[in-house]
Amino acid sequence: MLINKETFKQDFRKKLINMYAEDIEESSNSHKYFALASLIRDYASENWLKTNKKYTNNKEKQIYYFSMEFLIGRLLHSNLLNLGIMDICNEALTELNIDLDEIEEVENDAGLGNGGLGRLAACFLDSMASLGIAGHGNGIRYTYGLFEQQIIDGYQVEVSDNWLKKGNMWEVRKENKAVQIHFGGNVTTTMENGRLKFLEHDCETILAVPYDTPIIGYDNSTVNTLRLWSAEPLNKDFDFASFSRGEYSKATEYKALIESISQVLYPDDSRQEGKILRLKQQYFFVSAGLQSILRRYKKLKEPINNFHKYIAIHINDTHPSLAVAELMRLLIDEENLTWEDAWYITTNTIAYTNHTIMSEALEKWPIDMFKRLLPRIYMIVEEINRRLVNEVREKFKDENKVTAMSIIGNGQIRMAHLAIVGSHSVNGVAKLHTELLKYQELKNFNDFYPNKFNNKTNGITHRRWLLQANPKLSNLITESIGDHWIKEPDKLIELKPFSLDTSFREKFDKIKLENKIAFSNYAKATYGMDIDPNSIFDVQVKRLHAYKRQLLNLFNIMDLYRRLKENPNLDIIPRTFFFGAKAAPSYYLAKKNIKLINTVAYKINNDPQINGKIKVFFLPNYSVSLAEKIIPCAQVSEQISTATKEASGTGNMKLMMNGALTLATLDGANIEIRDAVGDGNIVIFGITKEQVLDYTKNHSYNSYEYYNNDFRIKLILDSLLNSSLGVSPNEFSDIHNSLLKNNDEYFVLRDFASYVEAQNKIDSLYRNRDNWSKSCIINVANSGIFSSDNTIKQYYEEIWK
Ligand code: 26Q
């Protein structure tokens, strides 16, 4: 790009004047942020147009990633990096006496996701653009993203996330590309030229208006598009007729009802609730996305039968699985194709990623609700199911399998079955997860479609999670091995020999310490926390869920506290335990866990006898921008889910990439991390998948055994019920019950001893600082394989072709 420091300064000045009639000296940080963002958009817009033209002119196959969630975070920094103008911008702003870090803090996170699944979608967008792949996002423009978490008196309190309040400089409203969406009504069937025609009538029709955000590739002039849909009434003008009839509240109510569809992201990431608004959201963005894809496709003047050769649609979990039926509807009802042709095109267009095997998370919709909201779509699902059932019966001759595999059953529609049947590829997100899908949870389907199932281990964009989040480490890496790792992350392996280099290790350690100091200062200023930057930073950041076992981490801390109380001279390396976790607002036990963590933290942090040897901090409102701050200073990465429960995990990858040592169970992608770094550079503990499956099969686990036989466990659990924590004795009785009366579903007590031992091992490993640093560097060196660039290349070659 032809920008230098001087033109940049000029452009920036001009922007401030154009937008706010202000000069730099009098403008606020907020105005500076918006001027800078607008300038970046200007710089990117030409390539945005060019990219689109190129895609159309070359008739390149377009990939559309359909996802209910895109957890983007901030865009200012990554856009500057990807445009290749970070240094120029930094130098220019410094000369203008402006601190870029401060300006960046003005931007609200685009928090349009719950956690792993939404962040994966965002990493994939970055990788597709950076690899020059024609891949775009399709989703919902929620007015409110994932709630902001406040901690009041130790409890989580949810506050709405009004992220658009100040305006969003990255998006462009494309009113001319709006499409109509129909809900409800009836379907009449008629005969036309010997073919059945289906006519929808008496529907409620609403408008889907797209907002496009440019997704800028790293140093390659590709600019892809994230298209997010907003729901609006068809007739936006205020209805004066009803107003004069005195029905004004009705008119505004109606508007609000429609807008509610894109109002707010559902904050539950683990338990499906059959809420009709969520079903509306799903159909809304799926139908809008498909209509706009079809409209663009027609401009290519290619026969509709070639659709799948030019279009690939990927569905992120089952949330967009209505795409199967909606594409069938469009091809049959609007494009007049036969069922067989439409089915061929649909199944060759769509591919599906599964992110969970936990049955309570699988989406199922009650038939009557589904039918009422989407009558024509329901007919199509019925027909898909009728054909499936016939084929299964034919192949397996087993009515139990027919019942088990049916899309419709028990009064419900099983969205996972619809997604599997309607796509040409089904993938899991880590090796173990895919094995569990193929040989346990979805075994029938794998037998039925032997070539459909495949693995695509997750990845993360090393540009955001290393280059951007950890500039000091990135500079050290570039000084040592050159900067080709930014485009070819596998090259990070060249760092490996540096693990033996004393002077490199010193620099590496110094950077970690500087990051820790910077975070401690930030935490002091922001939360008033007193953090010892010389302590080990032990980090567990992820959604709060029983299977992720934040409790196990906390129980070790409680035990360590007891040991310190009994022996104030206990020789341990000072440790700071950080937790960051949002709980779904309706997830009662998860919220109790937050209160427990904060209760224990308060007790330990205020105990003068402990003398700061251990401290516990709950970081409120864990989010993408907070992750970018805490991950670069982490030294221990807590990945301690019950084996088989975490499909992959991606925080594990971000933390290893920043030189933390992983303390992990053999679950999800932890296994692949271990394989990459070797047993000597990771600490593994806990029961294996075989043991978990065995316990489940034989019902042979009894958590009371561990309570009765391990005095440490007894003391911890008893303390939940007595007054030692300084709260009412009822406060944590439900946690107590979940572990004893309800037999500890996630084997916390079973893994306790093994976990304590592993934590002690961390302490002893840290005493050999040379070896510790060596291990950390080996972790960074091996993290390149977990770049989402690699993952996307595999999707591209093996699924999207
Ligand atoms: C479903 C129905 C109704 C309401 C909400 C939902 C819902 C929403 C979000 C269900 C699940 C999610 C998110 C799931 C998720 O983030 N899963 C994680 O995906 C990551 C990326 O593949 C994996 O690394 C994690 O292991 C997995 O837990």
Please describe what this structure looks like:
The protein is built from 33 helices and 25 strands. The model has no long low-confidence stretch (mean pLDDT 97). The chain is globular, with a radius of gyration of 27 Å. The chain folds into three domains: 1-55 and 78-106, no CATH class; 59-74 and 109-456, 3-Layer(aba) Sandwich (Rossmann fold); 462-794, Glycogen Phosphorylase B (Rossmann fold, 3-Layer(aba) Sandwich). Helix 6 (116-130) crosses helix 33 (788-800). With 801 residues, the protein is an alpha/beta fold. The two termini are 32 Å apart. Strands 1, 4, 7, 8, 11, 12, 13, 14, 18 and 19 form a ten-stranded mixed sheet that branches. Bound molecules: ligand 26Q. Ligand 26Q binds next to helix 6.
Quick structural summary:
The chain has 801 residues and is an alpha/beta fold. It has 33 helices and 25 strands. A hairpin with a 2-residue loop joins strand 5 and strand 6 (155-161).
Tell me the CATH topology of the largest domain: Rossmann fold
* The CATH superfamily title of the largest domain: Glycogen Phosphorylase B
Number of domains: 3
Query: Which runs of at least 5 residues are low in confidence (pLDDT < 50)?
Result: none
- The proportion of strand residues reads 15-25%
Average pLDDT, rounded to a whole number, is 97
Distance between the termini: 32 Å
* Global geometry: globular
The hetero compounds bound to this protein are: ligand 26Q
| CATH level-two architecture of the largest domain | 3-Layer(aba) Sandwich
Radius of gyration: 27 Å
Q: Would you state the CATH class of the largest domain?
A: Alpha Beta
Count the helices. How many?
A: 33
Range of helix content: 40-55%
Largest sheet: 10 strands, mixed
Instruction: Tell me how many strands there are.
Output: 25
Structural class: alpha/beta
